[in-house]
Amino acid sequence: MKQTEDQIKKTIAKVYKDLKLDHNHQYPIQLNFWKKEDQDNRFNMDYWAGSYDYSKGFPPNEMYGNYIIAINDKDGKPLSALIFPEELRINLDKNGNYVFDK
């Protein structure tokens, strides 16, 4: 692993913020690390997948989607956001904010 869990969590938080994905940053971020040789690896590289962890449920009148952000372990750059049922690619704009590819 080239990136630390803290680096990946900061990147995921920034992706959620920049893409205006509905979330509550008071919840923890959960991570999974995929090795290039793992059987179900979608990107054929070492990468992280993470999202806010809502597994313990929500308070009344609170609900959030589950967006899974994939991040390249080599350079720490986001690859995509999985927003069921589709996966959207991510890039940086000229201001350094993450945006969806067009």
How many structural domains does the protein architecture include? 1
> Looking at the chains present, what oligomeric state does this protein adopt?
single chain
The ordered H/E elements are HEEEEEE
> What is the molecular shape?
globular
% residues in beta strands: 25-35%
Please give a structural write-up:
The protein has about 100 residues and is of the alpha+beta class. About 15% of the residues lie in helices and about 30% in strands. It is globular, with a radius of gyration of 14 Å.
Short characterization:
It comes from Chryseobacterium polytrichastri. The protein is 14% helix and 32% strand. The protein has one helix and six strands, in the order αββββββ.
Characteristics of this structure?
6 strands, 102 residues, 14% helix, alpha+beta
Secondary structure blueprint with pairings:
Layout: H1 5-18, E1 29-34, E2 47-52, E3 68-72, E4 78-83, E5 86-92, E6 98-100
Antiparallel strand pairs: 1-2, 2-3, 3-4, 4-5, 5-6
